[in-house]
């Protein structure tokens, strides 16, 4: 176990030890399930151990959470916003420690780890303002002496199941808004990032404790599929937010639907960048690099397909191959590293197998496609020349693999962009207004995120995040995403002395 290493001393400052309890239940820590190891993907050494949740832990936690939810929903929304503000301030004091933990346990470079935690802090700020703007509508009634209006009330409990690639930011997108909307939160973090789940929960729990509020308002479990299935099946949880693969997301949705619950799904992406003949190449090339290689290709918004206009194909490809040679692969905590490891050994094996499938379907490896000698889960960033109709192009290989293809017309490029099952993010590089407005309009991209002259990744919290088709249709973070975390009532009030339809009838 590497917990004793000098570079890991910071873990004690965020409440972690060599052995950790992985359930925060009714304001206390416990863990009666299997003991698992958290592993550093850069060297596959054990960082620390965690006792996961048992089904007994889950049931105990849910009973307490259901009781606490009834209290929380009656607290005025601005006061709930004040608690979320304090959570943001508490996270600020541990920003760099938490960011370092994300980098250590997940494998993304340090700047990305810190940026992920900052995203939760920003969501707290966003949610504080939102707590005074949960507005309904007043609707003109066609009946005399009647008023019609909309009321928005809490759902009760929101379940949040997050993935390894953004082990805490996605919690922030959901929990900050769910809390100000008056819901308690049940969080199941990714099984392979339990230390992040524990460290984040300790900070959040400290705020509730300081304000003499029930810790059960934020209930957290480290655990695997068994706990995830329990959340999906639980009728006490009206809304389940799930982030993960399209295959698992579909199963979660079917389970939740069977009990008439609601699902918020953030699933696979297969994102394309289109570079037109008039594009600013100096802007486009670093954007492609950032989108294709960042987080070792393990973002749902990673650029996986690069569509180049035939007139600039060779020029852009040559520049891209040159910058790929300059990518520094290594320990994500070291300064200058651009590409850290894949998250698990299994991810590395999937990469190797994926390259063989790509070759078997006519893909030509232009750069990378191999694995360096290392104890960690490192792979070389890869560029592949391939037909857009190859079956493998329609699947999401979760690693730094970029498919490059050629097109002649904007119509052809949009058809290729829209030809995959997924519909998360997309981007076009051009200077022509007619292309921009075609791209963002009805005949354009069919994705939930449609960018111009910026890469496919790096979404801002102020806008709703999510995608269409096999990406699941969910929307998180900004805009009016808060409406998913509440129930809407249309209320008609008769303030007169008569019921219009009852005139002329004597009711005695």
TrEMBL record:
Record PROSITE patterns: ALDEHYDE_DEHYDR_GLU
Listed A to Z, the keywords are:
NAD, Oxidoreductase
> So what does this thing catalyse?
an aldehyde + NAD(+) + H2O = a carboxylate + NADH + 2 H(+)
Which Gene3D superfamilies does the entry mention? Aldehyde Dehydrogenase, Chain A, domain 1, Aldehyde Dehydrogenase, Chain A, domain 2
Q: Which residues form a coiled coil?
A: none
Q: What molecular functions are annotated in GO for this chain?
A: aldehyde dehydrogenase (NAD+) activity
Q: What is this protein called?
A: aldehyde dehydrogenase (NAD(+))
């Amino acid at each position: 176990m590497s917990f004793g290493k000098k570079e890991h001393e910071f873990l004690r400052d965020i409440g972690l030890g060599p052995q950790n309890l992985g359930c925060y239940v009714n304001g206390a820590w416990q863990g009666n399930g299997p003991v698992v190891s958290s592993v550093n993907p850069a060297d596959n050494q054990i960082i620390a151990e965690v006792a996961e949740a048992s089904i007994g832990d889950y049931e105990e936690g849910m009973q307490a959470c259901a009781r606490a939810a009834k209290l929380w929903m009656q607290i005025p929304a601005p006061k709930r916003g004040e608690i979320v503000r304090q959570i943001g301030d508490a996270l600020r004091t541990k920003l760099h420690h938490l960011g370092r933990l994300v980098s250590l346990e997940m494998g993304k470079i340090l700047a990305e780890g810190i940026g992920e935690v900052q995203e939760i802090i920003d969501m707290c700020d966003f949610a504080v303002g939102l707590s005074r703007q949960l507005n309904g509508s007043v609707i003109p009634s066609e009946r005399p002496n009647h008023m019609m209006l909309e009321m928005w009330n809490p759902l009760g409990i929101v379940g949040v199941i997050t993935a390894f690639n953004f082990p805490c930011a996605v919690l922030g997108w959901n929990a900050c808004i769910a809390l100000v909307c008056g819901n308690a939160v049940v969080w199941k973090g990714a099984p392979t990032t339990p230390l992040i789940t524990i460290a984040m929960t300790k900070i959040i729990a400290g705020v509730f404790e300081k304000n003499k509020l029930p810790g059960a308002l934020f209930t957290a479990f480290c655990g695997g599929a068994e706990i995830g299935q329990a959340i999906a099946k639980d009728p006490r949880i009206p809304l389940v937010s799930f982030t993960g693969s399209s295959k698992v997301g579909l199963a979660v949705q079917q389970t939740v639907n069977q009990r008439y619950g609601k699902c918020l799904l953030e699933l696979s992406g297969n994102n394309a960048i289109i570079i037109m003949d008039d594009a600013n190449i100096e802007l486009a090339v670093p954007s492609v690099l950032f989108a294709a290689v960042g987080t070792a290709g393990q973002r749902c918004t990673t650029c996986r397909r690069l569509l180049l206009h035939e007139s600039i194909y060779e020029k852009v490809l040559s520049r891209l191959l040159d910058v790929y040679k300059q990518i520094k692969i290594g320990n994500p905590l070291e300064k200058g590293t651009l590409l850290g490891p894949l998250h698990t050994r299994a991810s590395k094996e999937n990469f190797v197998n994926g390259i063989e499938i790509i070759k078997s379907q006519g893909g030509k490896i232009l750069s990378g496609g191999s694995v360096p000698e290392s104890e960690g889960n490192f792979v070389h960033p890869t560029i592949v020349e391939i037909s857009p109709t190859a079956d493998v192009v329609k699947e999401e290989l979760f690693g730094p693999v970029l498919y490059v293809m050629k097109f002649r017309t904007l119509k052809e490029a949009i058809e290729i962009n829209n030809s995959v099952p997924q519909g998360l993010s997309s981007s076009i590089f051009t200077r022509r207004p007619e292309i921009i407005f075609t791209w963002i309009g009805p005949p354009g991209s069919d994705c939930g995120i449609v960018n111009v002259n910026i890469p496919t990744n790096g979404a801002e919290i102020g806008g709703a995040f999510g995608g269409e088709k096999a990406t699941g249709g969910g929307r998180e973070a900004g805009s009016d995403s808060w409406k998913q975390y509440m129930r809407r009532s249309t209320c008609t009030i008769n303030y007169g002395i008569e019921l219009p339809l009852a005139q002329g009838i004597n009711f005695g």
